[in-house]
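Sat 14:20. Reprocessing the chain from the morning session after the first attempt stalled halfway. Input below, unchanged.
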Amino acid sequence: MRVRRLSLAHFRNYERLDIDLDPETTILFGDNAQGKSNLLEAIFYLAAMRSFRASGDRELLSWSVSDDPLAFTRIASRIERHGEPIDLEVVLREELRRGDGDAQSSVLTKRIKVNDVPRRAIDVIGTATAVMFSPQDLELVEGAPLLRRRYLDVTISQADRAYCRSLAQYNRVVLQRNHLLRAIRDRGAQPDQIHFWNRELIAAGSYIVSQRLATIKTLGDVSRRFYGDLSGGDDSLAVGYKSGVFHGEVDLAAAPDGIAAQFEARLADLQGREVKLGVSLVGPHRDDLTFHLGGHDVSAFGSRGQQRTVALALKLAEAEYLRRQTGERPIVLLDDVLSELDPTRRAQVLDSIEPGQQLLLTATDAETFRRAATRPVTWLRVSGGRVEQQRPASMAH
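Finished this time. Tokens:
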């Protein structure tokens, strides 16, 4: 999997960019706030159809046109997948919609093309596969459960479009079911309508849970090995899954069966409470990913260094998971991560990148990547949303 060419228009601080990318290692260097992370964000967006850091697509519009009611952003690339070229294009555009009377409102639309054929986002996710390492990854361990669920969903969706569709259906069902629960509570709606939405919830939710469990089993096994390498031999990392469907932590050693039956029983147990609160209380939208070292919860008891190492091991495991699922190694994007690591761990991360695997990384200090420079490297200097091929002065000899 490689990105051969990247084109941007009105994306973040890039007014225009057309650049051919090295099929192996590219180092983007320059001062802070010049656009290095933005370039990686654009590549990851093409894989996941969402930003790894923005709360919404509107944030991707170029700062110079953000007040324009007809503003647009274009992200396009030619990728190579299994040796075949594929053209991807996403255009985000502000469009004026007429409301009641003469009132107009601005609506952001997303149009996607694959080889110039219009496609839906749900059918394009995973056409390119990428793993993003960023300083925010520490939040995977110490942050809110929502972040870990989102991480799982983005990872699995790149490898399994059925999962992506089930997730979209599940989210729609949760929304409708919550409306009904509140209607039963507040307006005396007929409670027998809940049975239909329960069946829909169980059908989509059971698939999501089963795929998450299988994925976490792989991620757990591989990340344990990476954590041992990064920590100097500690192989006690355990990655788990906590689900209301199973009353808490799931035993991954014995793959649970009868997920749908257990889901149905839990819904029956909680229906009275759900009606009272007006929300769906059980299902994958309430579940969580867990991390333990020597039996202790890393988010509560782990040091900052342990949390960072767990997050790094998990991301390395993600790259291996995507390789196993798709048959190709994903594009690896390292956003100012290695500068926070000691030389030994920095070398271990870089050594995990296979020869021929595309790697793009950012740095303010090019000296950080002397180890990376032992392999063929393309150096790109980023300044004010402009990119030029230029070897750092400190690497001239």
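The domain at 134-324 is CATH 1.20.1050.90 (Glutathione S-transferase Yfyf (Class Pi); Chain A, domain 2).
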